[in-house]
Design goal:
Blueprint: H1 10-27, H2 39-62, H3 88-104, H4 107-136, H5 138-146
Helix pairs in contact: 1-3, 1-4, 2-3, 3-4, 4-5
Length: 151
C-alpha cells in the first residue's frame, strides 16, 4: 500500500521537522552554520503565527467544518482571516516554524521551515483545492480567484 503524506496531520509534520532540525542542530556541526537570529522578531512572528492559526481553527470549529485535510468539508469558510489567506492555519504553522528558525538562527531550522512550506504548498494545498473545487464548484473557484493561497 502506498503511503501518502496527505494522510498525516500538518501539525505533526511540523513537529517532526522541528525535532529533526533540533537533532541536527545539537548533534552535528550544523549548529555552527548561523544564518540570522533575533529573539524579539522570533517571538513576535511566533505569537502572530499562533494567532492567525488559532483564528482560522476557531472559525472552522464555530461553523462545524472539518479541520482534517482528508475529511469531508460541509461548509466553505470565506470570511474573517479567510478573506486574507485561503490557508491561515498553514500560514500560522509556517510562521511559527520560521519564528523558531529566527529565534535559534541556525541552518537546520531554516531548512525545516523551507521543507515544511514545500510539503504544504505542493502536497496539501493542491489536494485541498481539488477537493474544495469538487465540493463547492463555482463558489470555491470564485473565492480562489479573489483570495491568495498564502497572503
Amino acid at each position: 500500500m502506498k503511503m501518502q503524506i496527505i494522510n498525516y496531520r500538518p501539525p505533526r509534520i511540523a513537529q517532526l521537522f522541528v525535532l529533526t532540525a533540533a537533532l541536527l542542530h545539537l548533534a552535528t556541526p550544523f549548529s555552527q552554520l548561523h544564518v540570522y537570529s533575533s529573539q524579539v522578531l522570533g517571538a513576535i512572528l511566533g505569537i502572530g503565527g499562533f494567532g492567525v492559526m488559532i483564528w482560522g481553527w476557531w472559525l472552522f470549529k464555530r461553523y462545524d467544518t472539518a479541520i482534517c485535510p482528508t475529511a469531508k468539508t460541509d461548509f466553505l469558510v470565506t470570511f474573517g482571516v479567510y478573506r486574507v489567506s485561503r490557508n491561515p492555519m498553514y500560514l500560522g504553522l509556517v510562521s511559527m516554524l520560521l519564528a523558531v528558525a529566527i529565534f535559534v538562527g541556525t541552518f537546520p531550522f531554516y531548512l525545516a521551515t523551507t521543507a515544511y512550506f514545500l510539503v504544504i504548498n505542493n502536497a496539501f494545498c493542491p489536494y485541498e483545492e481539488s477537493k474544495l473545487s469538487e465540493a463547492f464548484g463555482d463558489s470555491y473557484i470564485s473565492y480562489k480567484n479573489k483570495v491568495r493561497r498564502w497572503i
